[in-house]
Amino acid sequence: MTQDELKKAVGWAALDYVTPGTIVGVGTGSTAAHFIDALGSIKHQIDGAVSSSEASTLKLKSLGIPVYDLNEVDALAVYVDGADEINPQMQMIKGGGAALTREKIIAAVAEKFICIADISKQVDVLGGFPLPVEVIPMARSYVARELVKLGGLPEYRQQVVTDNGNIILDVHNLSIVNPAELERAINALPGVVTVGLFAARGADVALIGGPNGVTTITQ
Ligand SMILES: O=C(CO)[C@H](O)[C@H](O)COP(=O)(O)O
């Protein structure tokens, strides 16, 4: 199976976690895009979605799924999204698609985070994938210097402006042995909007697509 077929398999498997008559939290990226296609097939059974990016909003609307502002929604049963890496503790690196801040906000609201990923995203230790950090533009150089002090090699993601009007620094050379501590340390830097480490709030369920089908991992 190709990587995209594995992504499709987990995207459709995530429908099992969608309760009819609810509003669904929807992530961003190529795996989440398969989930949105799946959601389109049951659009008359759900009330709508909240979306973590302009790209996902466009796709949801193109399929006729109503998209709500998060401020209009009191509670979300599930948030379904991909990941760039996931470790055995269900902590993740996210933000390869630059949507990390909205993703983290919706994940905080949702009762359950369902991570959908192909098997290449499973790692023992996070950090092989460069860690995305969303930064207010004027703080770019300062935050980059502070990230170097934390042991990383930050790289400015050229030509990328987030949906919130900010820039992304991708931090290489990190072996993240204490994800929760690093998440706190980076989030505390003035000018950082969000780090793409989802450690304090990891996934509750991971659906991992591999050659033998979809494996479900729960906390
Ligand atoms: O965090 C994300 C976007 O900001 C994505 O979930 C992550 O980059 C995985 O993407 P894909 O499903 O395309 O492999």
Automatic annotation (TrEMBL):
Entry similarity comment: Belongs to the ribose 5-phosphate isomerase family.
Coiled coil: none
Keyword field contains Signal: no
Organism this protein belongs to: Mixta theicola
Keyword field: Isomerase
Protein name: Ribose-5-phosphate isomerase A
Catalyses which reaction(s): aldehydo-D-ribose 5-phosphate = D-ribulose 5-phosphate
GO cellular component terms, A-Z: cytosol
InterPro entries: NagB/RpiA_transferase-like, Ribose5P_isomerase_typA_subgr, Ribose5P_isomerase_type_A
MF terms in GO: ribose-5-phosphate isomerase activity
Pathway noted in the entry: Carbohydrate degradation; pentose phosphate pathway; D-ribose 5-phosphate from D-ribulose 5-phosphate (non-oxidative stage): step 1/1
Gene Ontology biological process terms in this record: D-ribose metabolic process; pentose-phosphate shunt, non-oxidative branch
Assigned EC number: 5.3.1.6
Subunit structure: Homodimer.
Binding residues for substrate: 28-31, 81-84, 94-97, 121
Function comment: Catalyzes the reversible conversion of ribose-5-phosphate to ribulose 5-phosphate.
Domain of life: Bacteria
Active site residues of this protein: 103
One Pfam entry name: Rib_5-P_isom_A
Broadest EC class assigned to this enzyme: isomerase
HAMAP family reported for this sequence: Rib_5P_isom_A
The keyword Isomerase belongs to this UniProt entry's keyword annotation: yes
